Amino acid sequence: MTRSRLDLSEFDDTPPNKDPAKLREISDGAGFPSRPAVPAVAAPPVAAPVPQERPQAGTFQRPPRVTGNRNIAINVRVDPETAARLYALRDADPARKRVLADVVADAALLLYEREIDGASQ
What we know:
Low-confidence stretches: none
Protein name: Stability/partitioning determinant
Mean pLDDT: 66
Shape: elongated
Structural class: mainly alpha
Largest sheet: 2 strands, antiparallel
Strand order of the largest sheet: 1-2
Number of helices: 3
Helix content: 25-40%
Strand content: 5-15%
Order of helices and strands: HEEHH
Number of strands: 2
């Protein structure tokens, strides 16, 4: 098989560059919406968020324990409702002075134990 040159004689030459307004007019006429023009004045900056006493959603991290078999780090992403429940559990018994990470760790281990018990039955 021999290679032949591609005959480009039936194609027009490359058209000259058109101005953007003309291209926008053509694309809008063909039913293709064009990008909106860039506003001359920039939008006002967004106000900084107001700091809150407690986060609306967050990641609670429990440092690993080095004693016993609880040498695990737990990261939990929670929604605002769950975060409120965890804070309520932490504040329920001020005499114990529980750390929020301990509450999360205990809850996670309880769920893990329930899963193991459910799987073994």
